[in-house]
Here is the input.
Amino acid sequence: PIWVRHVENSRRDAALAPTVSAMPRRPHALVAPLLVLTLVGCAPTTVIPPAGPPSEEASLFASDEEALAAATEAYEEFLAALDAKLQNPPSPEVVLNSFAESQALDEAVQSVEQFEAEGLRITAPREVTSVQLQMVVRVDGATEVVFYACENVAGVDLLNAKGESLVTSDRPALSAWESSAVFRPSGALVNSRTLWSGGGVC
Here is the structure.
């Protein structure tokens, strides 16, 4: 059986930006399309569906706050690992599949390959400034926590192979993401990370 607990969120109305450079909605991590330094606006009318009734099934977490805290920790560890691979020199000891799976892992690997191929690098890790819980899903012995995260890249520069900055003056510092982390007896892995096109996260 699948048990879902929804958590209601406010309307999303804040301006959005990409991780290192502005991007269309489709990309999720720092892959080739993300290097197009153009500004992307938000869709302020986007609304999260109303919350459903809570499940009576016992959860892995004692509260929504505990679930969100655990998901945030897993997400921050994943971003730190990804950024360690994108900086110069990259960290060879970091293994991304220890932190992510599925779409999140695929996009992260593409980002690393893109950076290596074009000689790109970032100068510092990004920061997660705030998070909001969307829902908690339990299925087949695993618990998935879906949440929104606001990332800050104000202190992050994107450099080419010559050491020249590729960041434009109008690059937004904050970007909002809809992400999820899956918790199993073996541990936690981030399994999705998608640019959020609404507001109310950052």
Observations:
- The mean pLDDT is 79.
